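Thread: Modeling a multi-component assembly for a lab meeting

Hi all, long-time lurker, first post. My supervisor asked me to bring a structural picture of a complex we are working on to next week's group meeting, and I have zero experience with this. I have the sequence lines for every component (472 residues in total). Could someone generate the structure of the whole assembly? Inputs are pasted exactly as I received them:
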Amino acid sequence: MKMATTSKSKRTRKSSTPAYVPPKKLPISFTVNGQEVTAEAPAHTSLLYLLRDLGFTEVKNGCEAGDCGACTILLDGLAMNACCALGVQAEGREITTVKGIGTVDNLHPIQVKFIEHGAIQCGFCTPGMIVAAKELLDINPNPSRHEIKAGIAGNLCRCTGYVKIIDAIEAAAEDLSSKKGKRK
Amino acid sequence: MRGFDFVAPTTISATLKAAKGRNTKFIAGGTNFLPDLRHQHDGPAKVVIDLMRVSALQGISSSKGQIKLGALATMTDFLTNKIILKEAPILAAMSEKFAGPIIRNRATVAGNIIDGGPAADAVPPLLALKAKVRLASEKGRRTVDLDKFLTGYRQTAIRSDELITAVTFPSPGRNHKWGYYKLARRNAMAITVVGVAVVLKVRRKKVEEAGISLGSVTAAPIRCYEAEKILEGNVVDLELAQKAAEACAAVATPIDDIRASAEYRKLMCEVLPRRLICQALDISQDND
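Re: Modeling a multi-component assembly
Sure thing. I ran the full set together rather than chain by chain. Output:
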């Protein structure tokens, strides 16, 4: 697998340091959205780069410091920043990206409400935002507006001003709990 | 730091064996590790040891009045664990203000301590709870008081082959009083301007034992011993709370930075402890 980083730093080296040796690649296997994936990558590759290089580009690269939440995924059901783990740490784990929550042909209610409420402008924060919203509603199916704000506190949106996103999550919560009620 | 080896042991003994005599770094939740990795191009580590699969480092337990936080206990655990909510709710109050929910899912208590930052939010409440750090290496185990473990700006008393296995503290008792405040510029994802933690054991209106600490105003979070002494053994009124608050401000040596001025921080080191002590003990404050 190729590294997406601009590696091979060309900084001048002292003559005493040995020549550049490309880092050893390690085998990694895990599942993404139910699909088994195997890869090879150096140990320093972040889970974010690993996923994106494998084609899961719905996981966005925003800040690479855990600040923006654009790379939010579920790891064994728990929301986390893909930029804050090494790819090798995902060995044997189950990863869910936004595409595992719903696809274009089969949208999840959260995604439907994001569209209905215009909670998407440039769309860059949306994959992370929807994954964070999914975890929030899994834990707390009927959150208050304050709880929604706290639930997406780790996800930055620079377009919408959040109001429409909060509206959408509120509506999705209502939608999901009414559907659950019908099933019973 | 590039081209390191990676191992993911499942037991403490295998972890210590892997760490022995080699240039190693530990990784757990990675919320500090990965940003550091990105910004420091050529770190020294040859081997990175993943702790996330060591089950003995996980979990929160309580026995004989001692509460034990596994090194891998996360901030989310503090918000949901029944022992914490019952025995040390100050940790849940802290966690609520700690970064954001996604970071809290991964950020561990040992990671927050070992990073050694002055603004490490988990540290002031643990100092006020008089926590101890349990360390292990192939040579043996030892326990160090948290306030002695933190030796300076991003410096701790850990030795190169040692691992934090747990953080322990005595349960402050069901009827203890406490207060926590994180002064910051936002409600989430903010670096603390001033952090204050107060834990008071009260019996017949007298403060029997006090733990007061400050974060973000010294090189590493500190306990305010003088302020604790002022309160201990007394029925506290507004005047005494004020005296203790002044003792808190006296040990603060804050700096100017983009988040706040040193002057403002110093002032808050008096206002916030007084407010928290008064709120905890139900003392009315006239002009606050």
